[in-house]
Write a structure and sequence with these properties.
Distance between the termini: 17 Å
Shape: globular
Radius of gyration: 12 Å
Number of helices: 4
Order of helices and strands: HHHH
Structural class: mainly alpha
Helix content: over 70%
Strand content: under 5%
Amino acid sequence: MVEKLTGLLVGTLGVEKQVAVAIAGLIASGGVWYAVIAYPFLAPFVATIQGVIAIAGTAGIIGW
């Protein structure tokens, strides 16, 4: 999951891989708003990333 978010951040926003890993880690651990506070340019992308996590989680539960 973190790899997908990292790729999304690097591909969409053009941030460095280390920054993308830090942001993805914050988001995956439930600290979405901490990520927005630390990196304000993420605000428009938070809903998209939360949507990806929700869909992936739902698909995993359905597939299980």
